[in-house]
Specification:
- The chain is of the alpha/beta class and 373 residues long.
- Helix content is 28%, strand content 26%.
- The strands form four sheets. It has an eight-stranded parallel beta sheet. Strands 19-18-10-1-20 form a five-stranded mixed beta sheet. A five-stranded antiparallel beta sheet has the order 11-14-17-16-15, with no helix packed on it.
Amino acid sequence: MVVANLRNAQRIVNTKALYENIHNAKQRLNDDTELWLVLKANGYGHGAIAVAKTAEKAGATGFCVALLDEALQLRQAGFRQPILVLGLTDVQDAPIAAQNNVSLTVSSSSWILAANKILSSFKSQPLKIHLALDTGMGRIGFQKASELKDAVSTIKQTDHNIIFEGIFTHFSTADSPDSKYFHEQYDKFEKFMAVLPDKPKYVHVANSATSLWHKVCGGNLIRLGISAYGLNPSGRAIKDTPYTLQPVMSVETELTYSKIVEKGKYIGYGATYQTQSDEWIGTVPMGYADGIPRKMQGFKVLVDGQFCPIVGRVCMDQFMIKLPKEYSAGTKVVIIGESKGQTITADDVADYLGTISYEVICGFSERLKITYL
């Protein structure tokens, strides 16, 4: 998809806020605990390469991604820090990961055996792996301690083609005020760890929520995700955070057109909005192809510090808003961010859409350019 560089509509990424969020998280860790920044989904929509550069300056010593392709993007950009692919990777691509010093997540002994066979034929450098433990997330990972013991034994049979670099789990309710299930998961994690004769280099249990509200129990690495980007992983469930999270992304554009529409006229596809009086209607040059869902109809944006409702259905490339008065083309429109003391947050948008801030910020398409402050 082409980036619309010639259109005045952009995601604005505040790298100072990003730096502060990562630095503040780093300051709370013990000296022997590393911070790896999660950069999956193009750095949660903020631009993975630019975010990685700031994270490096703020003290991040490694990165986590979801896909091997995302790891290779970082390697091609010159980053030499450890990189862990959190999702599962096709065993046929194990040599690519090994050749680029990218660590892979593994959740079965059969994968280890197959990878060993492939790596032996390639005669590549060893592949580093992290064993995933399913302590209650139900997504990926070993479910039984016996399976973990078998995997460790299998690694020892690979003649150094595979290095057991790390082990981890993922908590599904670390962002909940009710910590009962969190502790159940952690208890299961400890039972897994008890069967290991030796710990690997990295042990990690902490995502953003865990690092904010729980002890990094027995781990020496945190995977910092959404909180690095200044958003509360619990949404509004837990309001207090140990340091102020500074939102990193704002989204702004401008009016391209405004006109007075007489009472009783319809606006947009499906004629879903009818003017109740003579109304000033503005047109905004973004739509669902840019990450403004049709369900945003009825939500508000900011113009000159005024909340202006989206009227009519959101189109692919444009949407219309009701203005309090006449504003000329070129007037700033804030979708996420601040305007004259008024603010719209990603959580505000998420609440309206019935989702979470993660989906909102990751939902902006590549057509919407990124401007870095």
